[in-house]
Amino acid sequence: MWPYPRILAHRGGGTLAPENTLAGFRCGLEHGYRAAEFDVMLTRDEVPILMHDPQRGRTLPGAGKIAESDWAELRDLEAGAWLDARFAGERLCTLEQGLDFCLAEGIWMNVEIKPAAAEFARRTGELTAQAVARRFAGKSGAALPVLSSFSFEALLAAKEAAPALPRGYLVDVIPEDWQARLEQLQAVALHTNHKHLTPSLAAAVKTAGYGLFCYTVNDMARAEEIRQWGVDAFCTDRIDLIAADAW
Ligand code: G3P
Ligand code: MG
Question: GP-PDE domain location, by residue (predicted)?
Fold first, then answer.
């Protein structure tokens, strides 16, 4: 039901390195992590990049929406100094670069499709799935990344573009119709916020035969609690506190 790694570094290297950058993946490796979650968004000119926020200001200097910026405007921006001066010089990472790096280093991936705006949902799902499918042509089973998204529409588009790639439906609060949604997406797992999970909901998801993944668990006591509930895997910001092989 969950053939994939069980503990993942959130956004590349958790909060120890700039999120969604190669520095993040490197930091994960230094902490023994060979599995990561990251976010993928499209620029205006449809370059899939690793990015969480739909706008500049927090992890990138200046202002402006990612969906209204071309890759050429973004590629040279400082993407590491916001967290710590020692990361100065880090740049944004394209999906292609991220996939290449993770494949070369043996990092398993949960690729979160993160449309910058609702109107880009389908296209973001489609292009992300196509890029991943190209890189994983001929591979199957546990080697494949899991594509996830809060956007049902994006995941449907991903399914149409690359049906063989496994999908996880990502929700903050588990909705009433979760099972119908998972069926429609032919998903392998439900990804959810551990803060809203209950033992009975966890049991229902597991009884229905799906994988159950939680975000973002930052202490081991909580991890152990949800493990008792049947949770298969989780991502963490605290790769320094939680050992990659703790489960
Ligand atoms: O995929 C799990 C988690 O990353 C979802 O929330 O906002 O950190 O992308 P967020
Ligand atoms: Mg994410």
Answer: 5-246
